[in-house]
Known about the structure:
Blueprint: H1 2-35, H2 37-51, H3 63-74, H4 78-109, H5 111-126, H6 133-140, H7 144-168, H8 172-180, H9 185-222, H10 228-237, H11 241-269, H12 287-293, H13 295-309, H14 321-333, H15 336-368, H16 370-384, H17 392-399, H18 403-427, H19 431-439, H20 444-482, H21 488-497, H22 501-529
Helix pairs in contact: 3-11, 4-5, 4-7, 4-9, 4-10, 5-12, 6-21, 7-9, 9-10, 9-11, 10-11, 14-22, 15-16, 15-18, 15-20, 15-21, 17-18, 18-20, 20-21, 20-22, 21-22
Amino acid sequence: MKEIISQKNSSSIVWKDTKNNRLTSIEYFNSFAIYWIVPLCLLALWWIASNQRWMPVQILPSPQETWRTFIDLASQDLWSQLLISLERFGLGLVAGIFGGIFLGVMLGYSQMAERYISATFYGLVIIPTLAWLPLLMIWLGIENALKIFIIFKATLVSIALHTQAGVRDIQPKLREMAAILQFNRWNLLKKLLLPATLPHFFTGLRLAVAAGWTSLIAVELLASSEGIGYLMVTGRQLFQLDVVFVTIFVIALVGIALDLLLNLSERKLVFWPHAALSAYSVQKKSRTDLIKSWVLPLSLIVAWVVSSSFGWLSDQILPAPWAVGAALWRGIQDASLSTAMYFSLYRAILGLFIGGTIGALVGIGVGLFKSIENLFAPTLNTLRLIAIFAWIPLLTAWFGLGDASKIVFISIATFFPMFIATWKGMSSIPNQLNEVSNILRMTLGQRLNLLVFPSIAPSMFAGFRLALLYSWMASFGAEYLMGSGIGIGSYMMAAQQNFEMDRVIAATLLVASLGAVLAWLGKTIESYATSWRKN
């Protein structure tokens, strides 16, 4: 009898488990189906708008026309152009990875290197990658060397910074244990440095891949005779927006594939737990350390002065420091440089305000309501993976070459960092706080004021600092690639075309100074707005 009862009980348990599994599968299918609602609605809207001629065919080609163009391009040179871009991207990424790891380990492990090199490295990082283009186009030309170096620079920065953080934040007890066990270099790398830095490295690698792919598209749009970016800009110039749509889809698919590959690699390779809190503490720099940080930049300036005095380099390649200073003073005196800087800064701030505000509001809305998150978050996260400069041919076709298209572009560039940071901050709010707010029956306003905003402030301001830098970078990209209007990017490109290197370098120094001010401003605003956390 007991056996029968036990068998019945066990069978009922199995049936319940099977039922639960079936329900779980149904729920999974439903959640998967929800993710496709927004993309299918956008596709339907596109289909209706194009077939009902809400917009001219030259502005909005139909989905079926875009598909036919894809088939035609796929049978011609689409894949060969994509392979050229991927080859450039791969070479620059590999160089950036090795250079970033070497520099990051050196800065993180050697206090001497950190004291002498880090300040100069951070100063160069502040300058947007695209701000180097006028100089590099003169020094390297417009062939593959330029593209590969731009990708190298864009990827090296993220990898070096995150590798340095991983090495620097190794807990002191682990360092002491490695010293006691007298690890050789191989064991030190295998058993200490690699496990400690790999999680940070993958974070930097994901940012580096996105930055490198975006930079490649930008430089191919600006100066290239082959590649997926060249194919896109050719379609825009001929007003074949079906070609532009196809290239955008291909660029998006590459971005999604790269992101999925990195996610899979990180899950396979980083399988050990790591400490949630680091033992690293920021040490106040002494006056000696500050003096050491100036050794390298002053040495570079001395080398620049000496080489110019003895004529070792042509003025067309590297003009003398006094010539650059004179060009900077003339640009400020006749207001050409200051006016250009004003317009670029105006567009950057206005685009940051529009895109950042919308991004923060959407992030809060998506985080507050699970149904909205299921509907819109996957689509927005996918759009984030499209290289931002891939939108420029469409924006110029829809909004023209004036300030409107530039501000829309900057707004898009700043929307995503603010949205992602705010959304992730919302998802990290502890469930206990949500339960307390429900028990206390807080209104939406009280919940936002007392729970949401204090909890997501660190994430939001981290996103704000990133959006601030993105707005400055996008302002350059808009001026380079949209071709008209007053701005510092247009000023530098005009000087580069006239081989006036003194004006190019003067503008670059001014951009670096303003970048430093913006970085300091973002950090100061974050520190002030989150000062309550220090109490």
